[in-house]
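Exercise: predict the fold of this chain.
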Amino acid sequence: MPGHESNVVLLPVEDAARGAVTALWEALRTEAAAAAQRDEALARAMKSSVLMHASLGHALSHRLAIKLADHDVDRDELLALIYSAYLDRPGLLGAAAADLQAVKDRDPSNSEVLTPFLYFKGFSALQAYRVGHWLWMTGRRHLARHIQSRISETFAIDIHPAASMGRGIMLDHGSGLVIGETAVVEDDVSILQNVTLGGTGKETGDRHPKVRRGVLIGAGAKILGNIEVGIGAKIGAGSVVVLPVAPYTSVVGVPARPVGKPHSALPGVTMDQTLSEPEYII
């Protein structure tokens, strides 16, 4: 079980992400120790959430288990389940580290990794989804549905466990986010609150959006149907998108229409929410 005992077995990490996970874990421990020193009221919380654990995987397993436990599946059962996911899929820890670093880099209200790790529900919900997706892909679909339900109840974020999510994703605020079963969200995407990646009716099969790398989706946007939002595109707040969006294009409105080109190649990374350059304004 996760803990800071001397005989604990460290969770495996994929080779490509090992350095990033280690560096982030060291930063997380340093920030937690400093927080405990600044405010003794936080000393116990920092110890139980971060400092008593042997690695990022152990600490994250513990944090998610506490958040998602209920009378159906208790904390110890969830702790063992999440730990098993990280043992079986080392890439999950690399994805978690990339997501955490994305929040640190992109959120102007935050300059550390400790705060999103402990308190940002978008980050927690995304990591819980990753466990649910692992369950779905290994055939444990009712348990995956349970995790989905607990994410929705706890964080007000509903991501179908069959959806495909890349890494380096930021779910900013997250409240009201809905992502459907056949949706795809690639790496380095940022999504604000009250966004829907949904279908258009009762059709079955592949029916949800495909959001390519580096896209920025503004608050309240609705992207509906099996359409592609191209790499580096930008969706304005409150827009309703029912047609494909070309790469490196900004769209806005109901229904959404092109209004220009993003000022950066990957607005999901830069968080530049300017919708158009003057020559493109209609």
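Check your answer against the key: The radius of gyration is 19 Å.
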